[in-house]
Amino acid sequence: MDDLTLIGRVAPFRDASAYAASSGALNLSQGLPEPLFDNAMNAALARQVRSGWQYADPRGEMILRESIAAHSAGYAPDSEVLVTSGCTEALYLALYAASTQYGSRVAFFEPFYPYYPGMATLLGLEFVALPLSVGASIGPDWAMFERQLRAGVRILLLNTPHNPTGWCMSADDWQHLVALAKNHDFMVIVDEAYRHYQYDTDAPAQYPHQQIPMMVAGSASKLLSMTGVRIGWLCAQATFMERAYAHHLYLSYCQPTPIQAAVAVLLDELTVGRLDSLREHYKHKRDRLAGALMAAGLDIRLPAGGHYIMADYSRQAPSLSPVEFSQHLAMRCGVMPLPATPFYLGQCPTYVRFSFSVAKPIVDQACARLEDF
Amino acid sequence: MDDLTLIGRVAPFRDASAYAASSGALNLSQGLPEPLFDNAMNAALARQVRSGWQYADPRGEMILRESIAAHSAGYAPDSEVLVTSGCTEALYLALYAASTQYGSRVAFFEPFYPYYPGMATLLGLEFVALPLSVGASIGPDWAMFERQLRAGVRILLLNTPHNPTGWCMSADDWQHLVALAKNHDFMVIVDEAYRHYQYDTDAPAQYPHQQIPMMVAGSASKLLSMTGVRIGWLCAQATFMERAYAHHLYLSYCQPTPIQAAVAVLLDELTVGRLDSLREHYKHKRDRLAGALMAAGLDIRLPAGGHYIMADYSRQAPSLSPVEFSQHLAMRCGVMPLPATPFYLGQCPTYVRFSFSVAKPIVDQACARLEDF
């Protein structure tokens, strides 16, 4: 994969937003999350700048590692938590660390977060994309994954809640994985960028990280509606963490000291009650958007989690490509989704992705337009 | 190089500071730069947080790229400047980008910034360390470098002003490199973390980047005395830049939006007059420390640039290792240098490194102790 391909795979995000801006359509192609925590952030930062601007602890300031550990039960802040430059660096480090012990073959489910293939390639890893059904019955085919384990795959990069489908690992799915781990030696990297955004699911509050070798990557980007704050984290048992930490020293090294302290304050303020209310807010937007998409004649599955709804437009415009349909919708309806193209390696089905991680008035306005479409 | 080696190579920095703290010695083992720009930074940041905390342009906010370009004459902010997570990520990306075109063999001068071997290893590159004399006559042996070019090296990672020796590429050195570039196809990566800290040198204000393929990595860490602000940059012609940018998308992605805007304000305030006065401040500290080290019977060469003085202690304690001598000096004299061990691949000579990038009262106090030693 050369540099143009690496850039090209993630360019549709930028292109869709540019098309939305130039066409005047409401931009539902990406996350522009709300409610914003900016006022709380700015107030916390104004206090935390007192700590000065010299090197932070490259593992992360302890006050932030403790806040992260409190949100990721079961990990020790002193040895099992690393602060990274967003979830992106955390995933890169996790893949590196996993590959030093589990080799070069990694699997993830397709559709997939578009950064996975490029990350694997840059780290010299081979990857296989396993189809995740996005039809009536959604979920991994664990028998197919076991065949891949027999064929040499030893790393599973697992995104739950899943971008773009909103699927979430269920208790049953986790049991399948635990059972597989009894007969196969593999590592699971959990990408939990959308953790806490689960609406209708029996997913367990805690992963079975005592039963499966596991690294967990998350970030403040979605949780605090601050995609540009660049505070991510990796949680893992100390033996794996040391490999990630070793590489981290030679990459971003540390995140800005006062930013870490301010994010710690905000994470500590995210109580169960506030998380419930945040989840309720997103669930409401999800339900509103889902109804409007169905009214517009698009086929959807209500996502159990995450920030997006995948919609099949084949009944409306079977001959259009996802890019063409997205632009068609922007021009004719005034709502811009993201073509699902970057989520697939090969031919993309007739899918586009709608984000409900936008301000509620925008969701309402987009829904009104979709209902009239 | 396994993860323990990667961590171990840079651990002496942490160990020396810890020893200084536990022994009560003045810590001259690392940069604790001053004058601080914290007040200006905090004031600028308080205004710039208005821009909010969503994703920044992954190439860097244009306002910051323009400020960087103004300090790095000859580069276009729209296509030849990339904002990174400190100079560390910039160097990692530069090595990656260079290797995609120039292959896997890189050379740097020894002693070297201790992160170079690990970075090369993590990127799957081979490296060769070419001795830089630190005795009476300092500088690269360009004939030796040409032999390496003939043997297949095609990337030179060049740190000027140099850490730890303070050597700076002279006009003559650059002419040697330009002459070599006429007969050999190689790329130079310039690590200019200490740019603007040149005291006695005929080094040209601008590198010959029209005559040699070149990428230039710098940062705000030393220039603005904010090692923890994590704003670095890479400047290069667009064709090389695209490779670095492609990898950057999958690593740190972007730096926090308001931090970028605030650092741009500070860089714009760094006028020629203020840089002159900053340089004069450091030169004064350099001269004060150099005199005291000589008074203490250590052999030094006055560094032409940078923040450090290498000192040979062989006349004082020929049988001690660099670590032993550092601890000896901390205990007996109350001044903690950095053992030069991490700057060498193999056997380290009888050298320790003293930083004059510390507050002036600390330099004065350390000098008084050294003069009495």
TrEMBL record, chains A, B:
Location of the Aminotransferase class I/classII large domain: 27-370
GO terms of molecular function: transaminase activity
Cofactor: pyridoxal 5'-phosphate
Chain segments annotated as transmembrane: none
Coiled coil: none
The organism's place on the tree of life at top rank: Bacteria
Keyword terms, alphabetized: Aminotransferase, Pyridoxal phosphate, Transferase
Pfam families: Aminotran_1_2
InterPro entries: Aminotransferase_I/II_large, Kynurenine-oxoglutarate_AT, PyrdxlP-dep_Trfase, PyrdxlP-dep_Trfase_major, PyrdxlP-dep_Trfase_small
Listed name of the protein: Pyridoxal phosphate-dependent aminotransferase
Organism: Pseudomonas beijingensis
Lineage: Bacteria, Pseudomonadati, Pseudomonadota, Gammaproteobacteria, Pseudomonadales
